[in-house]
Amino acid sequence: xxxxxxxxxxxxxxxxxxxxxxxxxxxxxxxxxxxxxxxxxxxxxxxxxxxxxxxxxxxxxxxxxxxxxxxxxxxxxxxxxxxxxxxxxxxxxxxxxxxxxxxxxxxxxxxxxxxxxxxxxxxxxxxxxxxxxxxxxxxxxxxxxxxxxxxxxxxxxxxxxxxxxxxxxxxxxxxxxxxxxxxxxxxxxxxxxxxxxxxxxxxxxxxxxxxxxxxxxxxxxxxxxxxxxxxxxxxxxxxxxxxxxxxxxxxxxxxxxxxxxxxxxxxxxxxxxxxxxxxxxxxxxxxxxxxxxxxxxxxxxxxxxxxxxxxxxxxxxxxxxxxxxxxxxxxxxxxxxxxxxxxxxxxxxxxxxxxxxxxxxxxxxxxxxxxxxxxxxxxxxxxxxxxxxxxxxxxxxxxxxxxxxxxxxxxxxxxxxxxxxxxxxxxxxxxxxxxxxxxxxxxxxxxxxxxxxxxxxxxxxxxxxxxxxxxxxxxxxxxxxxxxxxxxxxxxxxxxxxxxxxxxxxxxxxxxxxxxxxxxxxxxxxxxxxxxxxxxxxxxxxxxxxxxxxxxxxxxxxxxxxxxxxxxxxxxxxxxxxxxxxxxxxxxxxxxxxxxxxxxxxxxxxxxxxxxxxxxxxxxxxxxxxxxxxxxxxxxxxxxxxxxxxxxxxxxxxxxxxxxxxxxxxxxxxxxxxxxxxxxxxxxxxxxxxxxxxxxxxxxxxxxxxxxxxxxxxxxxxxxxxxxxxxxxxxxxxxxxxxxxxxxxxxxxxxxxxxx
Length: 756
Hints:
By secondary structure, the chain is an alpha/beta fold. It has 24 helices and 27 strands.
């Protein structure tokens, strides 16, 4: 067939826009010109790691691009490299079909916001949407058209390292955050700063057994629909352009080959009209060495038939689907359906109109890590910190005092950005020490030392602290480092310990069986406590950790969540320019033995309420409470708030009506501060067992000292519905408990009767 130039394809697009007026006609016309190999090429995603700007056409990926065998690339960065790839695709291949270039832009590009679990702790949907938009602005200016985000997996088990990438344990909050992220990334696709989102991981990945990554998942469909599916569905309904499959099995079938999941649920029930991509090398992992459901040809055909449209790096589709077509395992309609979905994504992004839309070197220099973005990131990062303890009002600190800053994260620029920060530029960021020195200037003194090793085991420390090329946390002589830490601590008025996890102790492949602060850091904390001085613990983490000893011995504790502007944001909060306002989106256990632990659990026939003493032949532990150390929704500020009892506009409502719940909140302290007012509902009696409580609304408010405000929540039928035993989405009349408060543990309630 005759080669079609990029100019000709662009003209075809413009004519299509003018005369055919719709995407479907344009793509049908293009597909009529495509060979089987070219169609399969659109389903093939390769990693661009080997691109050579000197001789790109001689690289493996260059040759495949020119042959029309690649529809997408990932893991390549830089406008120059991406422009070269796109040039080969649109100017040197026969049909000139543009590439879609993807990257894990998870919590920012170079301007990095808190890791997603930290962003969720802001409970600030406008800020979360803003962070996604800024990520899209910077990524799009640097050649990226597609981000593998948001991750919306519900996670109840902090042993799983990828809790860091998600939004915690609650489906309602997770759903609202998913919607905000989709809006922030995609907009309406009309601008050069809109990129395509990819919702992951579909589905249930956060429920991996033992918290061990890539492990088995097994649960009832009732639990899927009522507890796990909601954020995925919300993201789809918000218009997500793509979905990524998960590594785990669902009903004993790997998700990527699960037709019920990918077609019956995603397509038919939720009306998803974007395209589906596997996770990295998933097809390879489904063979006999992994899940064991067939060879590469068999597995590839199963995935295509299930509803997968693009194969990420396994190259199973392009190498085997032609033969599967010949032997009748798949049909041409199956291939055409997948190819059309990929081409539609490129059309929506405007790549047919301008293949170089995302390769603007001038814009890259203007927007990447610009002051405006850094200022916004600093504000949002400050909102994310969760103050867990502040006995004796140690915080905020006095900048005129002498402060000892101690710990592996104290002067660590390499890890400050956090996990999943592939575009980070650590040399541009401030460490906590650098930020504090600049903040106090000549008014105070900051003394700093590492004080201890990150971990006792040198191999483990090297492994976890060398993620994606980061400079490892240095190994030190523990005795010498401890002596130096004690020396400077004795000189100080207050001790600030920057401890916990380095960036890559959470994230993919970083499961932990022990959730306590690592042993060398704990030993140093114990020694510092013996000095009798005020101590503030900055707990760097990407998950719920066990802080039982710390909460009994360290007077001030604050969870912090990384980010390029984390150092400056910490100064804003530590020294009182901003009051901490983050609230937990995951329960923090007393011990790992309580895991999985979450607030919206089902009741048992022999319940023991949190805080009640141990009872024989009841559902409780001998050695610790049932409930968490710190509950879902919890967080302190530098002020205090009082809540009125919740009141209802009517004690009854019809099944098609609505009622307003009202609570009055007052700032009873001496400082302006923000509060997250939370609404929970319990279906007291239903046809199946229902959770003790479920988050169904929240509002973040800021009050001056003495100021009060009434917060109203509309109780609508939608908030009261659930999936019954037959998986019907229903509202069952009866009594409902309506609860409001600052967290899930401290609530007032009123009873609402719902009639037929």
